[in-house]
Amino acid sequence: MRIDLHCHSTASDGTDTPAELVRNAAAAGLDVVALTDHDTTRGHAEAVAALPEGLTLVTGAELSCRVDGVSMHLLAYLFDPGEPALLAERELVRDDRVPRARAMVDRLRDLGVPVTWEQVARIAGDGSVGRPHVATALVELGVVRSVDEAFTADWLADGGRAHVPKHETDPFEAIRLVKAAGGVTVFAHPGAGKRGRTVPESAIAEMAAAGLDGIEVDHMDHDPETRARLRGLAKELGLLTTGSSDYHGSRKTCVLGEYTTDPEVYGEITRRATGAFPVPGTGGA
């Protein structure tokens, strides 16, 4: 089985619609794909409706969190999307995205970049607007050559000249909320140092004690040494280890199935989940 547990659609900052994502996942030879848009489950229904035969969909979201001043992302799988407390927290994070993006546009304009809110809103479309959409505007304007180049101290990285913080959930509260909604939690790309400061291992140990289920080890932002270190940490803490592409369509260079999750780990994730269940494809629309 080929299992990719971290993908994005136009419901947040990917470039494939949810329907295109599942069709492309099947074409890439995947057996299981997770739709984990940022702080939203809005793309799930479309993905389910278009799910090709032979492909299983894991519903989820990537939650924006912050611990000790460091931003982090928590992948939440197979939770009840209608559970009131978790839904309210996702909406709180999502509602902060527009004023934050507008503030980043203002900062860029103060730096002499002729970006406009209308340009960023066009790029975001119906998705939850975020830094990747602002970064894409910088690419369009020729300010940087790629989205990755926009995530530096010069521009949009944490603490960068045009960075604006957003509301982010305490990860211990996020773990509690996801668990209460019947879901499973995995710390996304914990060693991605090029994105900014990373969460110390002591904090990961505290999260494990609070109920964190796993950490994403095999990821494009982790070099071999980082993967080995994280694998050892996971073994020490009794955490599951996953692998994923973090696919965003054409917005990033990663491809579907670039990194995958062991079927036994996937089986354990589905065994732990009680809020929702993987959806087998029956042919789609």
Task: Give the SSE map.
Layout: E1 3-7, H1 18-27, E2 32-35, H2 44-49, E3 56-67, E4 70-77, H3 84-95, H4 97-110, H5 117-124, H6 131-140, H7 147-150, H8 171-180, E5 184-187, H9 201-209, E6 214-218, H10 224-237, E7 240-243, H11 263-272, E8 279-280
Parallel strand pairs: 1-2, 2-3, 5-6, 6-7
Antiparallel strand pairs: 3-4, 3-8, 4-5
Helix pairs in contact: 5-6
- Name the poorly predicted regions: none
* Mean pLDDT figure: 95
Order of helices and strands: EHEHEEHHHHHHEHEHEHE
The largest pleated sheet is described as: 8 strands, mixed
Percent of sequence in beta strands:
15-25%
* Cα gyration radius (Å): 18 Å
Number of helices, counting only DSSP H or I runs of 4 residues or more: 11
How would you classify the helix and strand content by structural class? alpha/beta
Number of strands: 8
Shape, per Cα inertia axes: globular
Distance between the termini: 24 Å
Helical content stands at 25-40%
Short description:
With 285 residues, this protein is α/β, with parallel strands linked by helices. 38% of the residues lie in helices and 15% in strands. The two termini are 24 Å apart.
